[in-house]
Amino acid sequence: MRIDDLDTPAVLVDIDLVKANVGRWQEYCDQHGIANRPHIKTHKLSQLARMQVEAGAVGVTCQKLGEVEAMLDGGIQDILLPYNILGAHKLERLNALRQRGVITVAADSATTIEGLGAAMRDAGNPLPVMVECDTGLHRCGVQTPEEALALAQLIDRLPGLRFAGLMTYPTSLSETPAFFERTRELCAQSGLDVARTTGGGTPVMWRAHEAQGIDEHRVGTYIYNDRMTVRAGVASWDDCALTILATVVSKPTERWCVLDGGSKTFAMDTYGLEGHGYLPAYPEARLTKLSEEHGVLETEGSERAPTIGERVRVIPNHVCVISNLHNQVYIVRGDEVVDVWQVQSRGAVQ
Amino acid sequence: MRIDDLDTPAVLVDIDLVKANVGRWQEYCDQHGIANRPHIKTHKLSQLARMQVEAGAVGVTCQKLGEVEAMLDGGIQDILLPYNILGAHKLERLNALRQRGVITVAADSATTIEGLGAAMRDAGNPLPVMVECDTGLHRCGVQTPEEALALAQLIDRLPGLRFAGLMTYPTSLSETPAFFERTRELCAQSGLDVARTTGGGTPVMWRAHEAQGIDEHRVGTYIYNDRMTVRAGVASWDDCALTILATVVSKPTERWCVLDGGSKTFAMDTYGLEGHGYLPAYPEARLTKLSEEHGVLETEGSERAPTIGERVRVIPNHVCVISNLHNQVYIVRGDEVVDVWQVQSRGAVQ
């Protein structure tokens, strides 16, 4: 089957570009002695997780238990779930999933840690728990090295848990090394070893080696890339492996036309970018207005504009949310469609 | 099962509020002699479509062929698909689906109409085609009554098609009546009858009777309501039938806490609103920052703030995109969960 034979909208994944993106980052990590633990929220595909692990990743990162389940089903063994797991349902699921692979979690409160401790009672196989540290994002994470120490000590005291190190997101070159270093000192004074430190983030990826004392880097978007990674200067348009194929369904005036996808296809995320996607074939066109199933492409002032029935490819603003909107992706090589993969944990909000 | 027994995030639909919303709008339509054709993109559930039809709706509106399929599967017979259907795949599907119910489409170009005409060759059962008119939104639709006439004539000339009237979105009280009236005159002069006119939109819903010459009104959000319909003044918080149940998983400082859902749970749509949802129990809290699986709830300056492990309900900004993010909704009555319904055409982008 060829791309021309697909109905639209359709998500296309250029598998050769994916391999190149995976390889380039792994090479960088190998060169700098950084453990690579890619985040699968970007693709939600165990086929690509296996590609990442086979290239040299130490394991993967998931954000939800539903993603962990999908990755275990797909044969991935070592999973970091840097999320506060709370509540009887999730603790029970976590307990069951631990029989199938090595799962490490993160926590940033005594409440979370005590809940984990009460649920994990097997002292012979303690759950590895990292302490999440806020080094600038102001989302989750303890605010000071002293708080990190207190939680590390609490984890250490609970028989079913094992203190596994420090986690942050994203790595801040100016803040993270000092926060982790100070925490490491405090832990050492208390006889606790910080076995592992993990940071992450795509914009900082090619400078991860400058962050002293961070063993591991987690990055998600790099496998596909998007307008955000191009804007951040860590990728070029030619590195964008995922595109959305759409059809022009309306052209009421010469000033705009309408694509057959809107917020349910391209997502509303802007992150400060103008419009909702970039069309390599029409670089001046602006995908400005999305309703749910329509995308208004403004072409006023552009030299060229597409016609009704024409098919165009769109590079999305934020590729990680695209995988979550679509049920399947088409794996392509050049103009050939070589496979169709179902997105495995789409909608796994729990 | 009770709501307290559910894991989070979970979408809750209060079925009594749904019924009240459906009933109130139907009563208004009946009173004013307006045909009610609700848009199922909001719920994507044939159970609710049937409730709407049983209450008195003349049929439903869908935006994608995948939604049409789901509604036909659910026993809905009369469907308006106000979308330009282009390309061999979709024309073939449309042809097949027409054997199962009455499907009307809309078109705004000769290209679309000629494609429909070439695919629909059964002059004994012509496809009803409405002409989409742009009466202010500047999305799809012909720009002038003269263009509308030309397309109506083209539809009329093609043996497999039947000119079925005029369609716009949204109804503009100032622009739509004049546009439709002038088109009706032009059509009459050419011997063409405008059998039906259809407008739509939630903000204008309770003033639909002021728009002269529009037979039918399409409205989607009214069945659930959300922050947008409350802001528009067409519903109150007490009319919001869909809420998202979430858990506070982190509270790094007294200034903010973090919910276990982000853009993949609450959606990024803002439509000019501050933040990404409203918490009835914490009306001063601001759900300001969404990453994919985290929602930062700012509580600085609030009198009260939730604690870690606490479960809160969130009214989303735009409820129609919530149905598309989640695989199922929990049907509730008071604190009881009375059913679980799978969202039937989630991700039906084609």
Which descriptors apply to this entry?
9-stranded mixed beta sheet; homodimer; 24% strand; alpha/beta; 350 residues; 8-stranded parallel beta sheet
Describe this structure in words.
With 350 residues, the first copy, chain A, is an alpha/beta fold. Chain A is 29% helix and 24% strand. Chain A has 10 helices and 17 strands. Chain A has helices spanning 15-32, 46-55, 65-73, 88-97, 110-119, 145-157, 176-189, 227-231, 263-266, 319-325, and strands at 10-14, 35-36, 60-61, 78-81, 102-107, 127-133, 161-168, 197-200, 216-218, 242-250, 256-259, 277-278, 286-290, 295-298, 311-316, 328-333, 336-342. The first copy, chain A, is elongated, with a radius of gyration of 22 Å. Chains A and B meet through α5, β10, α9 and α10 of A and α5, β10, α9 and α10 of B.
Number of strands of chain A: 17
Overall geometry of chain A comes to elongated
Low-confidence stretches of chain A are none
Overall radius of gyration of chain A: 22 Å
Based on the structure, what is the oligomeric state of the protein chains? Answer: homodimer
Q: Give the terminus-to-terminus CA distance of chain A.
A: 36 Å
Q: What is the largest interface, and how many residues per chain?
A: A-B, 61 and 61 residues
Fraction in beta strands of chain A: 15-25%
The residue-averaged pLDDT of chain A reads 97
SSE-based structural type of chain A: alpha/beta
Helical percent range of chain A? 25-40%
